[in-house]
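Subject: sequence -> structure tokens, single chain

Hey, anyone have a minute? Need the predicted structure for the following. Not urgent.
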Amino acid sequence: MSGSIKRGAFIVIEGLDRSGKSSQAAKLLVRLQNANIPVKLLKFPDRTTAIGKTIDSYLRSESDLDDRAIHLLFSANRWELASSIEESLRSGTTILCDRYAFSGIAFSAAKGLPYEWCRSPDISLPAPDVTLFLDIPPEEARERGGYGQERYEKEEMQKKVRAMFQRLGKETDGRGQQRWVTIDAGKSMDTVAEDIWRHVKLFMKGVDGPVERLWEADAAPLNTPP
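Reply:
Had a minute. Here:
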């Protein structure tokens, strides 16, 4: 887009439980910092907020909530940080996010909630420029350390979640400037890191144009009043 101002890139890492998301996000954060790219790492759910603490208790199976209620809490947790994400991007800071709205939809829809209903609370959130989906068969993830410590870490559930992520990828890739990239997370940690870096390098100099909105490709950008 000629004449546009560069802003920070919005990079999301998604995947099944134990796919290596948090480890790869940490490695990518260091690599971006070493390249002198202003960058901020976010993790969803953000368990430090009031809403996040309720979510944390639920995920640890210390409390029970209706499936619809917990889905809306996950979405509200993302909306708590939506404005700060947008402000950081505009200031030239790259946002690196460990899980985002796609996880919320994939897990809730996998539990049997209507797909479109699951998606609706997150419509108009800032849209990532690239989503890196770390794909691994659930039976392989099960063999990794710590598996089963949280509520959703069950193989049958993870199979359903994986199918939902695949649907989201097909529906997201190519909407506006948004890209969805599937990474084979069954490879060695270093190989996966290199695969991720190959795609992230495209955003080293920032991104042209305003921040887009999730599932509103034809809507006004976030920094334009309705």
